[in-house]
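User: Fold both of these, please.

Assistant: Here is the first one.
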Amino acid sequence: MVVDGRVAEYGTFNEPFREVNLLDVELEVRGSVLPRALREFRLKEWEHFGVINDEFYFGMVIFDAKFMGTSFFYAYDRTTGDFFEHTRNSIAGPLRVARELWHGECYYRHLGYIMEFENRLDSGLHRLRAQIKGKKRLPSVEAELFVHEDLDRYQPLVQVSPVSRNRPFYTHKNACPVEGRVVLGGREITLDPARDVAVMDVQKTYYPYRTFWKWATFGGYDSGGRLVGMNACENFITDDEVYNENCTWVDGVITKLSAARFEFNQSALMEPWRVYTTGGEMKLDFLPEGERKGCINAGVLMSDFHQPFGKFSGNMAGPDGTTVEVEGLFGLCEHHLARF
């Protein structure tokens, strides 16, 4: 991705990078190139997976903000509306985010809490494992999941956008079948790749100190048995008509979209949202059912995070100019303001 200190090229790529060497970029601040240790500190990295089942939605992340590490696992029972979450934060905790997806590991390990993601893109597979001890009214979690990202069948979104000159924003996203099992306390949920879908969000970015994003994604099988998905984001990228991460997937075929826009009530995020593109290729309504949220305010550091989840309806572009009808597919939106 970086050659001789410079980003080789910005845009959307046909295949994943073999080497995501963002620490090699000559990142300048006030005319001076930051030393590698400070570049490491400024690079924010995470892997996030959302797992969609007819009965449950599971969200999980390993996030390295450098000044702090975070991991969470949450479960939403779609049949009852029940929600619970296990979260861990650490100043200098035992965590790692993989440098690349072909053969890399992520982990967050703490007493009574283990989250591990093994990326094996060379085998078309990601293995997700969680082992979390129950506490108070929160059930224990034991999970082993396999996300099938076969590049011959499911084309990922691979995007590098300019935050500013030679300051890259990198993301890799996909919607893929998932199988395995999750045990919540004494209840076991079995995932079937013919029915269940995982949406993945991998990111490494030199974020500006003050930042924001609005994000939406979903995945599922439509009435015709096709695996369909969507990703849309509105953030700080200035020329988002050219550089954006907006796309749809239909049976693994990706279709790029124009800039995304979000309309919602910031003081009442559980009210309906509208997500659309400036070119008219996508018009979706989002009806939240629940929300994962978190707020950290430590003076110079701040994070106001809201991730409502629920159902999308509307229409969007598919391959070769086709239109895909979206009828109640499950996913999430996100509204995040931060200083970090």
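And the second sequence with its predicted structure:
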Amino acid sequence: MAVKKKPGGNSGLKVWLDGRFIDYDEAKVPILTHSLQYGSGMFEGIRANSAKNGTAVFRLDEHVRRFLSTAKILSIDIGYSEKELCRAVVECVRINKLQSCYIRPFAFYSDDGVGVSAYGKKISVFIAAVPLGAYFGAGREKGIRCKISSWRRINSEIQPVEAKSSGNYVNSILANFEAKHSGFDEAILLAGEGYVSEGSSENIFIVKDNRLVTPDDGADILLGITRDSIIKIAKSAGLEVVERGVHKEELYSADEVFFTGTAAEITPIVNIDGIKIGTGKPGPITKMLAQKYTEIVTGENSEFEGWLTYV
């Protein structure tokens, strides 16, 4: 008796592949695809939210520009303009009739072969939009527990940290696995000099004496768009924001610590390495910034309405 194949969780969605929309289940590549074997793909992460005037994509232009910047760093010819990619992202959300969702543009070498060289190989570009709630579930409200990883953050002498290349994220996968295996929710990586860098896929902030502090680019961080948003929101709210090297022990003694990221949004950290942070609950500044961020992405804040692209 033939076993009926169970459809994947994203069956029924339409995706954009090389300039046209097709069914998710029809988007296939050879098993020997170069980017599957060697991690030579590149991607971007974008969120859309249900907002006051419809579904709104958050900071679309900035995300697409970073996607193209990654391509330039990796010497990948995308073959599409910023305007074409922005249009495809919006259409991908619209055609799937999504509200709150995560959008994944992805470029990869779609030629199959066993050689490591990518020179001259065919490039494909893929865009998918999938429903996504809170990345850390209840942790977004209650806070999460983190472990400082034994793995160090990669640096630009090894791989380009400012590129969102697939291969970079092996570093993140290892750190996250170690944290989860040890009973924590997420990892925090240190840079080569021992300064705090970032989470496995998030930027990190500390609050100390009503001042917001976050690692600068000397700590090999990805300069996140949500990170930039929180810096601008905090300054608008009258908070002092300092970008500098952050010592590990400053995490333990901070009044508040939180992650920022496209998927994570603003997620409080209430425990690091078994040490309670502040009161052990999300702090007032973290909650204030999270509230303002929510107001912005849902179209309830006119000061930053230029960050939204309505579908």
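DSSP finds eight helices and 17 strands in the chain.
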